Amino acid sequence: MMNEKQVDLKQAALIGVNWIPCSGSNTLKVFNPASGELLGTVPKLSEEQVRYAITTAERAFNSWRKTSINERCAVLNNWYQKIKENEERLASIITLEQGKPFAEALGEVRYAASYVKWYAQPALQDNGSAMPNGSEGESLKTITEPVGVCAAITPWNFPAAMLTRKVAPALAVGCSMIIKPAPETPFTALALSELALLAGVPPGLINVVTGDAQLIGDIVCTSKQVKKLSFTGSTAVGRHLMRACASTVKRLSLELGGNAPFIVCSDADIDKAVEGAMQSKFRNAGQTCVCANAFYVHDSLYDRFASAFEKRIKALSLGLGSDPHTDIGPLINERALEKVEALVRDAREKGGKIVYGGERWAESERWYLPTLITEATTDMRCVQEEVFGPVAPLVRYSDEDSLIASLRAQDTGLAAYFYSESLKRIHDLAAELEVGMVGVNTGVISDPAMPFGGVKSSGLGREGGRQGITEYLETKYIKLCY
User: Fold this and answer.
1) How many separate domains does the chain show?
2) What number is the average pLDDT over the span 101-114?
3) Do 81 and 227 fall into the same domain?
4) Distance, CA of 163 to chain centre
5) Cβ(378)–Cβ(395) below 8 Å
6) Which terminus of the chain has fewer Cβ atoms in its 10 Å neighbourhood, N or C?
């Protein structure tokens, strides 16, 4: 259960073993999105301090890379245990600074911990191979080595899970990490990093830098000491970071914007599809990169699906994240609310029918009502763009081939969902959709044992699964003659 009185916010940056406190007015303010209350501040680090953090990470890396796999995994297991022991406190911090209901925040903490546990397995790591191709007197082999100092820029919507998904595999293979958390949610990153130190992670392997995003981003992108950058966020920022990293030809992992279609095929089980739609659309008030964006419902099922979906949407409860009955929390800030309002206004002007919602909550303007839009069309912005809010546009379709062709023409390709009872259709659609992840008859796809990532403008590389390990490794070929 959430207990705000037991939450101690670490209002400092972390470099090595040193906590860098706030100094004067050179700080970033962090607010509770539900109330607007000031939660605390974190320092705006100077260029010199950020560069010192990188040098500190490099020194720690040079030592850590020499430790055994078993030793590194043991430390990760200790971190996992610390997270589990403090899961309610961590969840309370997430609810305070991000706004999601406590039950969802607790689920995120457990999901974050699962990545640490997953990467604490020595058997996951590829340590190279010997090749039998050489001539007599020759030995051909490959070995893998950690890339070095890495940087992670994490988002505000999942401040715990997106951190551990990047940091755990990096530490497992021998890398060190510079973490730049979102300015809206730095306290979760700081709490997790404090637990890492208590778990025995050597100082300098995890450094948390707070402050001006442009300054920090430019430094890590252009630093020759930083060998890899992992970023989760918008496509626009991802493109900027990609260009900035070109000067040092840096390794990149980019998990960028999505526009996940949710297809209800003509042979779908409506009850299951509605359940999956609720899971996918309204988690974290629709503020997830893989949540269903637009719903494409076959004409033969459209009215029945819309009616059943409407009933479930109307039953959602809005309120504070600390209230155990709350389903929908606030949006992260005023800018997010204004974007959702603009998308709904555009849909209304283009003939969309607002069946439910379509405005801010009467009891607090920091919330947006869960919204159902029927008779949505593909020229509406809420269909073309990532909504990142609790808005569900329903598009009617009759020709599946035309629908798939239009979806393949989209620039994004992170995730897609569809419901069908036909094995042939399941096989064909899963292959035809140009996305990195597909949910078939489910609205929940994330799993630490599986690779997470997109194609096209939705990103590069993968996090999670065995693939998440290789993102932090370089392969070296050695030919030995004797």
Assistant:
1) 2
2) 98
3) yes
4) 8
5) yes
6) C
pLDDT for 125 equals 85
Over range 434-438, report the average pLDDT: 98
Res. 24 pLDDT band, cuts 50 70 90: confident
4 — pLDDT class (breaks 50, 70, 90): low
**Per-residue pLDDT tens over the stretch 166-221:** 999 999 999 999 999 999 999 999 999 999 999 999 999 999 999 999 999 999 99
Tokens (6 digits) for 147: 């890339």
- Regarding whether 196 and 225 lie in a shared domain, the answer is yes
Mind listing the pLDDT tens digit for each residue in 132-141? 777 788 889 9
The reply to whether 151 and 247 lie within a common domain is yes
Whether 274 maps to a domain, the answer reads yes
**Do 289 and 257 meet the contact criterion of CB atoms below 8 Å apart?**
yes
Nearest to 44 by CA among 178, 179, 182, 210: 210
Per the CB < 8 A criterion, the answer to whether 256 and 455 are in contact is no
- What residue type is 438 in one-letter code? V
Residues 6+ apart with CB under 8 A from 226: 54, 148, 149, 150, 151, 178, 220, 248, 250
CA dist 6 and 226 (Å) reads 37
Strand partners, 173: none
Kindly report the CATH number assigned to the domain that includes residue 310: 3.40.309.10
Same domain, 240 and 306: no
CB contact at 8 A, 8 and 90: no
pTM above 0.70, yes or no: yes
Q: How confident is the model at residue 421 (pLDDT cuts 50, 70, 90)?
A: very high
Comparing CA positions, the residue from 47, 39, 13 lying closest to residue 181 is 13
Tokens in use for 317? 């409860």
Selection from 61, 72, 51, 53 nearest residue 14 by Cα? 53
Domain enclosing residue 53, as ranges: 4-256+458-481
CB contact at 8 A, 310 and 356:
yes
Same domain, 246 and 333: no
- CATH number, domain of 221, equals 3.40.605.10
Catalytic residues: 255
**One-letter amino acid identity for 240?**
H
Residue 249 lies in a domain: yes
The structure tokens listed for 221 are 């992108």
The chain-wide mean pLDDT, for the chain, equals 96
Shared domain for 221 and 294, answered yes or no, is no
129: which 2 tokens? 């191979």
- Does the structure show a pLDDT above 70 at 2? no
Integer Cα distance of 391 and 286 in angstroms: 7
Is residue 442 over pLDDT 90? Answer: yes
**Residue 453 forms part of a structural domain:** no
User: Exposed/middle/buried for 455, CB within 10 Å: 0-12, 13-18, 19+?
Assistant: middle
Same domain (yes/no): 360, 229: no
Q: Which residue, among 481, 461, 480, has the nearest Cα to 150 in the 3D structure?
A: 461
Query: Does any domain span residue 372?
Result: yes
Q: Are residues 268 and 247 in the same domain?
A: no
